Amino acid sequence: MKTSLLLLSTAAFLTTAASAEQKAIYPAPAKPLKAEYTVYSGELGNEQPPTRTERKLSVEVTGQGAKDIFDSLYPDDKVTCSDEAGERLRSKGNITCSYVPARGYRCFFGFDLRTGRSIAGGSC
Length: 124
What we know:
Strand content: 25-35%
Signal peptide: 1-20
Order of helices and strands: HEEEHEEEE
Distance between the termini: 70 Å
Number of domains: 2
Shape: globular
Low-confidence stretches: 1-18
Helix content: 25-40%
Protein name: DUF3617 family protein
Mean pLDDT: 85
Keywords: Signal
Largest sheet: 7 strands, antiparallel
Number of helices: 2
Organism: Massilia aerilata
Number of strands: 7
């Protein structure tokens, strides 16, 4: 009986210690992301196939990931992309997020794949 109690106590202690250690190692764990991307040349809204000298990446994130990004970009911008009731827009640098009740959260960002520089990934 004493041996079983000692083993149980030890197991509980090790589980608690391992859990605390895991939290310390991964304080901001990776999460799944729902996204689509386009590799293109030209300008947003008039994308062309990528060329040897011009390749840009546009990424659209939706779902919970977009909501998490949106929530981190406060405050709301004064400008919106449409007249739809309830639309909200937030942006910082080349990251733009919107919330539209009918479509949910969407975020856009992009990169020039030839230079590695951040560029806009979406437009109204």
